[in-house]
UniProtKB/TrEMBL annotation, chains A, B:
The chain crosses the membrane at residues 38-57, 69-90, 136-163, 184-203, 240-259, 274-292, 334-362, 395-416, 455-480. The keyword GTP-binding does not apply. It comes from Parendozoicomonas callyspongiae. It is found in: Cell inner membrane. This is Trk system potassium uptake protein. It is a multi-pass membrane protein.
Length: 482, 482
């Protein structure tokens, strides 16, 4: 691919992204904050860098091959994280260095929600709004990536979804159809966010908090405007609304589209992935509530309230918190962290390996069991009524092994920086699964971790968000040949 | 399968196993120990139970199906662990309860080498000898299992070895050929053990220690006659001999057979699994020695000595120790424990998932990468010059996912008993990989763990030793149907 094409695309992207500085300018103006200057500056820098890269090549025409999708997707997230970190780097309190600003920006755009900032209550509203907006924009990007781009690239078995995406995306060129799909998804995403904000507002949040939290709920991001997260409100009603929208946002957005089109609410329950997703939430939820009650960590109603909320928050990889689960009997946080590895559904804003892959792994492992008992019989792996091609199964297994292998390597890297096992395990799991909260030294926030660890974790967030292979493929010599 | 056939086979097995009490009787006589009575009693009980089960059905003839191999193999290890625990249960000091005696016996026969006993120096020689002998017999059983039985059952991709086993085992009936193969392997195993004992003796061990340690070296067991393990001798020469025989015993015994037949020492290096095995040992060894030196844990020569020994000991899953590696910077013990997951070669006495499977997983994951770049090209996974059938790949992936899934479930179970993360992770990894040593509360031995944890860990040892599926298949309703 010609570097000129890359510059043109990234330039156009930056021009678009510069607009993201305008709402914070408006918020700063509304609350009479001096950050008007900060965000205006960011707007100008991003806009002109974008124009500088775009204009010289605005009329270059080059056909894009599917393969080019890998490079563009990775650069997309890297460049946005870089420019997204400008206001965080330049703001006065807290005074973040480049490592921290980049970490926070990457954490926002990948909807991870891990933070290096404490004292959120003291931050200017415009900065708070900006952080929430980063997650919301990241979430939008992920849905387009997952529904429109990954199926075409065939990453980790996602070719399964190739024919199911809204609109007929059957050709393998990265051309206009993506724009159509993206528009449909955009309306859907905006719609759900608006309803979510409305519910929060009716439940007692002020409008600012309602909008901010709707951003990070629907994006499965987990950033909050308070150090105590959504627990600050101490309102079971608000928690219930959060639970509802976390579960909804953890489903495939293409499925929402079809469900709305079919006007049949039972459409969801016929989807094998949704069945698996709800089964995991219910199963882990049940175990957690019973364990919290039996160990006397909470009494009955509290066990139900805190147990269900944290399970939904972590299993969907949102990362909101209403209690300090790092103080629960260690069995439970570990169970929750392990559940975040399966994560939400493919095509959602959630992280983890995705329920569909866990489902396929289980079906394939159980086929191996059957084959041992009847070595000469033929068994097919089915998803609903459709047989899953062997090649999809192989891609899923390749994905899962790469995921676990990279998890181990990064955990060892964090241990080598001197962190203890609990911290290393939980932070790498949290960032790779785009979850957010962690245990040990990072149980409050990631501030105190060594800079090396923060860079490894930023890499983990990107790896997780880009479904591993999009990024790993760039390290393969074969990719660059010819 | 008729219960009468099972009783006949297990009866015959117990009659054979009763003979294992005679060498300890001899040792007790030699050292004038009162344990003559203990082992004579064990001999009589085991012999007569065996005869009682065998004789009534001695003339029953039933064709065995390959499937029956699963049940027989599992019962084989369970029944031997049970009868093997008799002397440990009845001995006076230390006074073990049933949980501990069974754990120790299972640990011996599965060549895990995890122990609940301290003060080994004070134990009667006959008891010490008996423990070592349990490992040696277990090692023999494992080789027969791995070389002759698993390939026929096709567990976890081991059908790869079906045509490579010594002697033509091409029919799928559990009949005389196994006996032939077993005899060949028995001579080989005895030969290597004898040479190993001779080397230890020449290097300065007394004859008793030399024989005892040769048993646990060649079986990759790790039991010692001293609490300080082989470090008690504080002899670099002995350590070098141990390293050599651990590496040798971690290779496929069928490969030893072919190498000896071909009279070509380079035969080994042409085997892709041996190449991978040596590369892992060299790579992890290099990292460890450098890390030990750079962190100032040891000075140069000591870093080399302790680093190489512990890496070989843990990567092969032997579990001997010459230093307290639980005190090393946590990065290193974790690296070693993770390496024990790949473990030794298939068809050896070692544990873990086996190098061949890790190799296949890597090759398949790298094929997925290539497929992403060239979606329409066809790539074959090769091992040496042979293409690996897709079905073998699927079986390997099924194996690895079941392994990791069960590891997680058992780790959660141990956390639920109240153990901390380091202890739970390391003990489950150690027992599932048939390794032995662990960290945290089990860094000296397993005595202080709760009884529930010991039973879970006994189950883990059996699971690991029987390559997961042999045991798991028995829990499937399909197995029992018809
Ligand atoms: K999150
Ligand atoms: K061992």
């Amino acid at each position: 691919m010609h570097p000129s094409v890359i510059l043109r695309i990234l330039g156009a992207l930056l021009v678009l992204f510069s607009l993201a500085s305008l709402p914070p300018v408006f918020v700063a103006w509304l609350y009479h904050e001096p950050e008007i200057a900060l965000f205006s500056y960011t707007f100008v820098v991003t806009l002109f860098t974008g124009l500088g890269a775009w204009l010289p090549f605005a009329h270059t025409e080059h056909e894009l091959r599917p393969r080019d999708g890998f490079l563009i997707t990775v650069l997309f997230w890297l460049v946005l994280s870089l420019f997204g970190s400008i206001p965080l780097l330049l703001m006065e309190t807290p005074n973040l260095d480049f490592t921290d600003a980049f970490f926070e920006s990457m954490s926002g755009l990948t909807t991870t929600g891990a933070t290096v900032i404490t004292g959120l209550e003291e931050l200017p509203k415009s900065i708070l709004f900006y952080r929430q907006q980063l997650q919301w924009l990241g979430g939008m990007g992920i849905i387009v990536l997952a529904v429109a781009i990954l199926p075409m690239l065939g990453i980790g078995g996602m070719q399964l979804y190739r024919t199911e995406a809204p609109g007929p995306i059957k050709d393998r060129k990265l051309t206009p159809r993506i724009a159509e799909t993206a528009k449909t998804l955009w309306y859907l995403y905006l719609g759900i966010t608006t309803i979510c904000a409305g519910c929060y507002w009716l439940a007692g949040m002020n409008l600012f908090d309602a909008i901010c939290h709707s951003f990070s709920t629907v994006a499965i991001g987990g950033f909050s405007t308070y150090d105590a997260s959504i627990g600050w409100f101490n309102s079971p009603l608000i928690e219930g609304i959060a639970i509802f929208f976390m579960v909804i946002s953890g489903m495939n957005f293409a499925l929402h589209y079809f469900a709305i089109q079919s006007r049949d609410p039972f459409y969801y329950f016929r989807d094998p992935e949704v069945q698996g997703y709800l089964a995991i939430l219910a199963g882990v939820g049940f175990i957690s509530v019973v364990a919290l009650d039996m160990t006397g960590t909470y009494t009955d109603w509290e066990a139900l309230r805190y147990g269900v909320f944290e399970v939904v928050s972590i299993a969907t990889t949102t990362g909101y918190s209403i209690s300090d689960f790092s103080l629960w009997p260690i069995f439970l946080p570990m169970l929750l962290f392990l559940t975040s590895f399966s994560g939400a559904c493919a095509g959602s804003t959630g992280g983890g390996m995705k329920v569909i892959r866990i489902l396929l792994i289980f079906k394939q492992a159980s086929r191996e069991l059957k084959r041992l008992i009847h070595p000469n019989a033929i068994f097919t792996v089915k998803l609903g009524r459709r047989a899953v091609p062997d090649r999809v199964g192989e891609a899923v297994w390749g994905f899962v092994s790469a995921y676990i292998f990279l998890f181990i390597i990064m955990e060892l890297a964090l241990l080598a920086t001197g962190l203890d096992l609990t911290t290393a395990f939980s932070t790498v799991a949290s960032c790779l699964n785009n979850l957010g909260p962690a245990l040990g030294e990072a149980s409050a926030n990631y501030q105190s971790l060594p800079a090396t660890a923060k860079w490894v974790l930023s890499f983990a967030m990107l790896l997780g968000r880009l479904e591993i292979f999009t990024l790993v493929v760039l390290f393969s010599p074969m990719f660059w040949r010819h």
